[in-house]
Design brief:
The complex is a heterotrimer of chains A (566), B (259) and C (349). Chain B has 259 residues and is mainly α. Chain B contains eleven helices and two strands, in the order H-H-H-H-H-H-H-H-E-E-H-H-H. Chain B is 50% helix and 2% strand. In chain B, strands 1-2 form a two-stranded antiparallel ribbon. Chain C has helices at 40-43, 45-75, 82-113, 131-148, 154-166, 169-179, 233-242; strands at residues 120-123, 199-201, 218-223, 244-248, 267-271, 283-285, 290-292, 299-301, 307-310, 322-324, 330-332. Chain C has a four-stranded antiparallel beta sheet. The chains are: A mainly alpha (566), B mainly alpha (259), C alpha+beta (349). The interface between A and C is large, with 140 and 117 residues. Strand 4 (254-259) of chain A pairs antiparallel with strand 1 (120-123) of chain C. Chain B: Its EC number is 7.1.1.8. Chain B: The chain crosses the membrane at residues 237-256.
């Protein structure tokens, strides 16, 4: 449509103009640019949480490139000849470990880059988690964005994998024990466990292949997959256009915000530099994973506080909580449920929940429309409750994975803590769900109350008949619209079990199950205020300012009756 | 009533609620804190002075002749090193029952400690107090010390000696503040939960190497703030609180409308 | 409360001035985008100028940061010591942070104060393609299928499917069969301990006399092998199975061995590899005789056959039978009689 042929416009004179002309004559890039340059993005701080993950990933690639220049992924044994650190001088270690020490102590800026890289990894995963929380609690995963949610959850898993493979590369005692735990978990898998362990380590643990294998995964396979998925993620985001929070003028059919160029793009670019700057500050001032403290891998030692990075702590915690009695021998074969349940089943359940939730919610809602307006979390109490319950389970597991540090820092018994967490793992999420749902319903009622009766003003007025009332100020249009513009879904209606002729209907049972689930979601709900309700409230709510104006003749405003509390 | 309603919306309400929640947590914590278990040892230069001190301060638990009671172990044969360790770190005499005797300001001065040690040493042969040269880390080999520390000590005391948890509320203390002499004596005598590492297991030179390694750790971390040297959990906590805190703070600033 | 159960409520409120649906009677109408409020910089040119200067200043600070980091790189030559590396890391990191934060903060402030902040509205269109497009595409595929003759020539479809399904094997078979080494998983069953292997201290390799161990002491033990063998990969893999924890208890405290007659005069030797997931279990509490794993807190009672008293492990640690040879050194009487470390499916077969 907007194809510009060289003849139709004046010859470009500036350098930029010439370059643009050169490119466009060959690629028709103008069409794309036209679309992108003025694309409208809604402004909200919570829409920048995904940028945290994106930009820390960019920092990971930049700092990771630096590290690959100096790291040697080899498990060949060598003696460390450098004087520093003194505790490593003359030690036998793998080349991988020696090169890690070398880049930290001999390469100027090497330790800074290592630390930036590791801090970025922690922030990358944290960014993914907070971004997912925003998407989940506001219902941004609904149609048409279920696909992008799936891409996102897959990236979360790839992020875990990237972190895990990178963490084990220096071949130190701490990560070596992490690998050993992985080996133990893999071996517990029925039938194929031993062979899978050989598959990973190229023989018995630890062998001499694991570091090069992890290296290839860490710098090639996983980042390539992540990059591809980031591309898909952003493409879908642009294609579907960004969601927006509800508010005046924001509808399901539009996007209100600022255009990509210049304000939005400048802010986004600025955010990249701010995030990079914070990561550089952390890398420069706060020590992280100083592997020479742990020493080169040796299968005998282990250190107190043997934990993985934070995003793996939930697995560590779940392994810690599981009682050992659940290992069984069946027909001479060992089934280690004490490992399988915490290390395979529980993470499996957590991720399955993440993968299927959008589809379950769509099904119980019976809603096939597209959604581009976000939900306020309070308006979907059960979803919000489930999300908080999920986080509670995750946090309890992560805390259980830190139980030894909790024990020493709060002078508690590690055994007691373990028992408390065993109990909390079941009770905590249920309680969190229940209380969150109650809070949401309470907030919704409060919204209704506000819409119907307005703000308390603190002004007390006395009527002629001696009655005192407080004057309420009605909400302005924008305030009210925010609180009434939502749907309170009702539970699914299903067709009866038998048709008119009394013949049993196929699929009724399944429908019933969905209906039951739908009731769980939507039985308790607070409907938005309708104009009729508001009118009714005004007609008998004499204490509304609006009304009191109409009934002014009856009102005697005695001296001293009007007081302000604020 | 209205005042109450107004206060309910007060902006400090969340703070008050948070404080309440902390209070409740504190109560629960107090209820969960581990219950006491039992303790350990005590003793001097001039043996007579030591004996008097012993009978005044230690005999209640360890028995009038240090032969031990159901409360506390016999001190016959523990040696002067054990007494010096326990008394100079303030662990003995014990004041309070807890999962283990904890270090506190010493109750006795150096002379009294020496007297007690001499008295107990006179009861039966045991390890003597190491000489200053034996515990001088600057004479040791930190690399060998680290290899030994990693195998023998790090599982309880953490990779660089920051301490760690044991079962039932017991713990391996941080070594950052412990004197070189006390570190050496602890290996030699195996106080409380700690096993004994006698001179056949870890030779005197090796013990000094370990002291040298711990001394090196006191220089802090090459990477910057050590964050307690506690490993990935504390790193994760700092990443969330400081890193993500700053970044989200920036996001809020970027997203806010300017006035 | 539930008067509104309309399955198609009007979330899609038409913006002001739009045609289309009327606002339903039971819903409020959208008040429209709130009125744009100009910023101070929009109305006050002096304020705009002030902010412009501020932004320039922050960009310049960023330049100083970059220069600073280059200066720090050349000026602070770390000598490899802890303080030297720390200083260099600190200076480079802080200068880099100033440089980056300067750009970031200045850019954002520029966008926030000087670039237009008028709200723009962009229409959305349905995510799906139109019915005509769908029909055309479906038809094209149908035509394509007809052209290829898929329906008429089922053998063709079957064979192409088969070929495609099989071809990855030419890569996968060599890969998978080589990647696991010799696949001899029965190696899990044995360690390098055998009758007569002397016990040695880890890491020094000194031999251990029974008489050297005092009650309450613990020793981390490896099999006695020549020093040069301890510098090979083979050794690390063997060590991963062979490490043993040696404890001397008062014989009166020793309730039982896990393996009949495996201890010597209160000296017991247990595998150091946890039966849970394989961490080295090594936190020995001398007074309670409990052995705690720092990874997942499985607790074993050394005085009682290393049985599990707490935590996620099920089985006791395997015991190494020991005795004393003619010279008074501790020696193994045999290998472990069960695979050490974590459980696996065919462990007992």
């Amino acid at each position: 449509m907007s194809t510009t042929t060289p003849s139709s416009v004046a010859e470009p004179t500036t350098a930029i103009g010439k370059t643009a002309d050169f490119l466009d004559q060959r690629t028709k890039v103008g069409v794309l640019a036209k679309q992108l340059v003025r694309k409208v993005f809604p402004d909200h701080w919570s829409f920048m949480l995904g940028e945290i993950a994106l930009f820390s990933f960019v920092v990971l690639i930049l700092s990771g490139f630096f590290l690959t220049m100096f790291f040697e992924p080899s498990m060949a044994l060598t003696r460390y000849e450098n004087e520093h650190p003194a505790s490593m001088h003359g030690e036998l270690m793998s080349v991988a470990f020696a090169s890690t020490l070398d880049m930290s102590f001999e390469v100027r800026g090497g330790l800074l880059m290592r630390q930036i890289h590791h801090w970025s990894a922690l922030i990358f995963m944290a960014g993914i988690v907070v971004h997912m929380m925003r998407v989940f609690f506001t219902g941004a995963f609904r149609k048409p964005r279920e696909l992008n949610w799936l891409v996102g959850v897959t990236m979360l898993i790839l992020g875990l994998l990237a972190g895990f493979t990178g963490y084990s590369l220096p071949d130190d005692v701490l990560s070596g024990n992490g690998l050993r735990i992985t080996d133990g978990v893999v071996k517990s898998i029925p039938i194929i466990g031993s062979y899978l362990s050989y598959f990973i380590f190229g023989g018995e643990f630890p062998g001499e292949h694991i570091v090069p294998r992890l290296f290839t995964l860490h710098i090639l396979v996983v980042p390539a997959l992540l990059l591809a998925l980031i591309g898909v993620h952003l493409f879908l985001m642009v294609l579907n256009k960004h969601t927006q929070y509800p508010g005046g003028g924001r509808t399901n059919n539009n996007v209100v915000g600022s255009p990509a160029v210049p304000a939005f793009a400048t802010k986004m670019g600025g955010n990249f530099f701010i995030i990079f700057g914070v990561l550089a500050l952390m890398g420069g001032t706060m020590a992280i994973n100083n592997v020479w403290n742990y020493g080169p891998y040796d299968p005998s030692p282990v250190s107190a506080g043997a934990q993985p990075d934070w995003y793996m702590l939930f697995l560590e915690g779940s392994l810690r909580l599981m009682p050992g009695q659940t290992e069984y021998v069946i027909g001479g074969y060992t089934l280690s449920l004490n490992i399988l349940i915490p290390a395979v089943v529980i993470p499996g359940l957590l991720f399955t929940f993440l993968f299927v939730y959008p589809f379950i919610e769509a099904k119980v809602t019976g809603d096939h429309r597209e959604h581009h307006l976000l939900d306020r979390p309070r308006n979907v109490p059960v979803r919000t409750g489930l999300g908080v319950a999920f986080l509670t389970a995750f946090i309890i597991l992560a805390l259980a994975g830190s139980n030894d540090l909790i024990a020493t820092h709060f002078s508690l018994s590690i055994n007691t803590i373990t028992w408390v967490f065993r109990f909390l793992f079941f009770a905590g999420p249920v309680f969190a769900f229940w209380i969150t749902k109650r809070i949401c319903l309470g907030l919704q009622r409060k919204d209704r109350e506000l819409v119907l009766h307005g703000h308390e003003t603190g002004r007390i007025v006395r009527f002629a008949n001696g009655e005192y009332i407080e004057v309420h100020r009605p909400l302005d249009e924008q305030e009210r619209w925010l609180r009434v513009n939502y749907d309170a879904h009702a539970p699914l209606e299903i067709e009866p079990a038998t048709d008119a002729r009394g013949v049993k209907r196929k699929g009724y049972k399944q429908d019933r199950r969905w209906q039951r689930l739908s009731r769980f979601f939507f039985e308790d709900r607070v409907e938005p205020v309708t104009p009729a309700e508001l009118a009714a409230a005004h007609s008998h709510g004499e204490h509304d300012e609006l009304e009191s104006a109409h009934t002014a003749p009856e009102l005697v405003s005695g001296s001293g009756n009007v007081e302000r509390e604020h | 009533m209205k005042a109450l309603a107004a206060r309910r919306h007060h902006r400090s309400a969340p703070v008050v609620l948070l404080l309440l929640a902390l209070l409740v947590t504190g109560g629960v914590y107090a209820a969960l804190a581990p219950s006491p278990a039992k303790a350990d040892t005590a003793s001097t230069a001039d043996i007579e002075t030591g004996k008097k001190l012993f009978q005044a301060n230690c005999a209640t638990c360890h028995g009038p002749n240090a032969e031990g009671t159901t409360e506390a172990p016999s001190l016959v044969g523990v040696g002067a090193a054990a007494v010096d360790f326990q008394v100079s770190t303030g662990r003995m005499p014990m004041q309070m029952n807890g999962p283990q005797a904890e270090a506190k300001p010493p109750q006795m001065d150096e002379e009294q400690t020496a007297a007690l040690a001499a008295y107990v040493a006179s009861l039966g042969a045991g390890p003597a107090i190491p000489t200053d040269e034996q515990v001088d880390g600057s004479l040791g080999d930190a690399a060998n010390g680290m290899a030994l520390f990693r195998t023998n000590c790090a599982m309880c005391h953490n990779a660089v000696g920051a301490g760690g948890a044991l079962s039932e509320g017991k713990f391996a203390p941080s070594l950052f503040e412990t004197s070189d002499r006390n570190i050496y004596q602890a290996m030699l005598t195996g106080p409380q939960s700690m096993p004994v590492f006698n001179d056949a297991n870890i030779t005197p030179e090796e013990k000094r190497d370990i002291v040298a390694f711990i001394d090196e750790q006191r220089e802090g971390s090459a990477g910057g703030l050590s964050l307690g040297s506690l490993g990935p959990v504390s790193e994760g906590l700092w990443a969330w609180v400081v890193g993500l805190g700053l970044i989200i703070g920036a996001a809020v600033w970027i997203g806010a409308k300017s006035s | 409360m539930s008067e509104n159960q309309n399955p198609q409520p009007s979330r899609d409120v038409t913006p002001h001035g739009g045609d289309g649906t009327l606002a339903q009677a039971d819903r409020f109408t959208d008040p429209g985008v709130p009125e744009h409020k100009p910023r101070l910089t929009d109305t006050d040119p002096r304020s705009a100028k002030r902010n412009e200067r501020l932004i320039v200043l922050i960009f310049l600070i960023s330049c100083l940061g970059t220069v600073g980091s280059v200066v720090a790189y050349f000026a602070v030559r770390p000598d490899g010591t802890t303080e030297g590396v720390r200083l260099s890391t600190l200076l480079l990191g802080v200068a880099m942070a100033v440089s980056l934060l300067g750009i970031g903060i200045a850019a954002v402030h520029w966008a926030k104060t000087l670039m237009s902040n008028h709200e723009h509205v962009e229409e959305r269109h349905p995510s799906s393609s139109s019915d005509e497009v769908r029909a055309v595409v479906a038809n094209q595929f149908k035509e394509g299928g007809k052209d290829a003759g898929i329906a008429r020539r089922p053998m063709l479809l079957g064979s192409v499917g088969l070929a495609l399904a099989l071809f990855p094997l030419s890569i996968a078979v060599p890969l998978v069969s080589s990647v696991g080494g010799d696949w001899n998983v029965s190696k899990f069953r044995h360690t390098m301990w055998k009758k007569g292997t002397r016990l040695a201290y880890d890491p020094s390799g000194r031999l251990i006399r029974a008489a050297d161990l005092t009650v309450g002491s613990v020793a981390h033990v490896i099999p006695d092998v020549p020093a040069e063998e301890r510098e090979t990969h083979h050794w690390i893999t063997e060590k991963a199975k062979a490490v043993v924890l040696l404890v001397r208890l008062d014989p009166r405290d020793l309730k039982r061995d896990h393996r009949e007659g495996a201890s010597y005069d209160g000296i017991v030797a247990y595998s150091k590899i946890c039966t849970h997931v394989g961490c080295p279990v090594a936190l020995y509490e001398q007074q309670t005789h409990h052995l705690l794993c720092p990874c997942h807190q499985s607790t074993f009672d050394i005085a009682d056959g290393a049985k599990v008293v707490f935590g996620p492990a099920k089985r006791p640690l395997p015991q190494l039978p020991i005795t004393v040879d003619d010279e008074g050194y501790l020696v193994a009487e045999d290998d472990f009689n069960e695979p050490i470390g974590p459980s696996y499916w065919e462990r007992l077969k």
